[in-house]
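Notes from the 1:1 (GR / supervisor)

We went over the backlog. Supervisor wanted to see one worked example end to end before approving the batch request, so GR pasted a single chain during the call. The sequence is below; no edits were made to it. Supervisor asked that the structure be written out right there so they could see what the output format looks like.
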Amino acid sequence: MANKRVPCDVKVETSSSASGYDGIILVTDSLDKLTGALDNLLAPLKAQAEFDESLVKDGACVKVNVPANRLVYAPTGPLTRDYDDVRRFADAAESGIKRGLKVGMKRPLLVRAPDQSFPHADLVTLLGALHALYVPLEIREDVPEKASTVSSLGFLGDNKMVQLALALESGKTVARDIGGSDPERMAPPRVEEYVRNVFQGTNVSMEVVSDDAKLCKEYPLFSAVNRCAKGVLRHRGRVIYLTYEGVGPIERTLMLVGKGVTYDTGGADIKAGGVMAGMHRDKCGAAAVAGFMQILAKLQPPNLKVIGAMAMVRNSVGSDCYVADEIITSRAGVRVRVGNTDAEGRMAMADVLCHMKEMGIKEVNPYLMTIATLTGHCVLAHGEAYSAIMDNGPAHLSSMAQTLQAAGEEVADPFEISSIRREDYDFHCGKSVYEDVLQCNNLPSSRTPRGHQTPAAFLVMASGLDKHGKDSSQPLKYSHVDIAGSSGPFPGFPTGAPILALAKAFIPSAF
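Structure output shown during the call:
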């Protein structure tokens, strides 16, 4: 039976001739690399390729003379061109596992032919296979006989790397469970319930703010979004704080705020024309925060403190929903005029970010980050596979965006770097004496120039972080990460982005 945080048991093997498996998934870019201990797999593949030229490019399933009996060849394609990266291995492993399932494998052995192209190719290969084996939470709960697609998975590799992969996968599973589950299964109270279950008995502590009076007083922008939904008990919003503190003197404090919009109708500026489908995925930022905290609970890195906040709210439409033209004073004392209720993610996060700012001033070497499926513009600008990261002044001086981009490049969690410019701040300046800040214009982000950069400026201004720039006596490093493209396809599984890059950047000793 699979561990509830990973899709199946994973066993480390030392030979492709290991017994107990009903198939091999072979990942490589070239048959020429099947030498030494893998040369027993070469002859049947070469024989197949002699009359089926598509094998080299498209793969195949062949009979082999080892206990596993059959082999699915999953080619990566070329690895040496300018645009080839380590994702080739994840893609090949995922495709290979899916092909193996189609031919009836229940106990596959995953094998990667050795090469020196990328330092973490083994890790990425195994994670790609585990991603393909993920079973959604609702299926695991409601149809237990389908809770696993395989009974076990073998991997030809190093035990330390496999244990790291399982820790990372457990975090990705938490992120997928929260981010991908439907808007009732993961309504705010049930997210709280799920997270409590995940971290019970671990060294991650949990605090939940759900009292409406406290939310209205301390998180007024969040509460504006929550105003319509809170009339329905099962949809009432809450802010969930998770804290991890490693052993030893704290050297760095990471403070994460995740957008957790469990369903986004658009509010009064309702999403029309069929674009509402898939809006249960608007909680993937908060899901990533929980997933990263799960990785911390597993790896327990020393000298690191992490505070994660999940801003869980439903953007409902009805007689009590907030509307454009309202002026709401944020926790930071900033008068915000609402321009578009479909820009609810920045509203949900801004006061929580302000709270993080207040705490961060007292923490050791703090670094603040917001993570959100925020804008369609990000997808237009960078595509569907990439997180966009934007630094404020202090973070830019510390090359935070470059650090996350380099980390993501190594573990198949890629980033593109955007910048917060003066035009973005100007865009959100109040347009009259009534307000200090304009929340948004009344166009979709995809039709707004710099549509994924300006929200970062809004978050800085509405939270009061603009008082902690590089010219401040108390500068605070802050980055905004837009995962609208990288969070995963719908239909399909969420990816868990950007937690692999976060792990590589902030827990480097584990790799």
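Supervisor's comment: The radius of gyration is 24 Å.
Batch request approved.
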